[in-house]
Amino acid sequence: MISDREYFVADPAEGVLLNNLFDNSNPLYVEIGSGKGEFISRYPQTHPDWNFIGIEMSEKRIINCLKKLSTERNANVRLVRRFADENIRDMFQSSSVSGVFIQHPDPWPKRKHHRRRLIQQNFLDSLASILIPNAKVQVSTDHSEYAAWIVEEFLQNPNFTSLQDDPIQLHPNLDEHIVTWFEEEQRRHGYHPHFMLFERI
Ligand SMILES: C[S@@+](CC[C@H](N)C(=O)[O-])C[C@H]1O[C@@H](n2cnc3c(N)ncnc32)[C@H](O)[C@@H]1O
Q: Is residue 52 domain-resident?
């Protein structure tokens, strides 16, 4: 019998596109940094005709995610243990991803670490190359300085525009907002998330 790990966690050889993880041509959505798996286990259940890939760099977090996934409820989900950065361009076929979710990316608050931030021009150029026109990118962070940085980076990039009147909103912008473990923890400490929604032009 196939284990949950074998079912959900894919480790394709270098150069094999992640689009091939599903044997159907349903729209493909990607979450970067799935953490303890709240989003990747729940949101895809409300969109059974979409495929979802969670990219998560930490083995410990992959195990957390697996505890929340079930083959009955989450047939449209796969996980990949990878570090995503501008290399995301090599993971997917160009113009093939319908949307991306990034909840609470690591803010790297110290100035000397800013270059480690996920959201910066090289990454956004790569991301744009895998997205279909009008694809949406949903980002949230409770770190207000990183939120302002994220907006600046997206709006500076010719491939993206904000879909919000105010690019930073204090309430969720999805059809169903999944409160993650990290969001809940941070709220307890008085840090409230900022929500952003961008569109691939
Ligand atoms: C602050 S946690 C947030 C987790 C989850 N999205 C949430 O809201 O609870 C950041 C997560 O992203 C993962 N991560 C950070 N940078 C990543 C990257 N470049 N590629 C893949 N995973 C990453 C970390 O291992 C961690 O699980």
A: yes
pTM of the model: 0.98
pLDDT higher than threshold 90 for residue 4: yes
Give yes or no for residue 145 CB within 6 A of ligand 1: no
Q: What is the CATH number of the domain that holds 56?
A: 3.40.50.150
Residue 19 lies in a domain: no
Q: What domain count does the chain have?
A: 1
Q: Per the residue annotation, which of 11, 49, 106, 165 is the catalytic one?
A: 106
**10, containing H or E segment:** strand 9-10
Q: Which atom of ligand 1 is nearest to the CA of 84?
A: 20
Residue 49 annotated to the active site: no
pLDDT in tens, 58-95: 999 999 999 999 999 999 999 999 999 999 999 999 99
User: How far is ligand 1, taken at its centre, from the CA of residue 55, in Å?
Assistant: 9
Q: Which residues pair with 31 in a beta bridge?
A: 54, 101
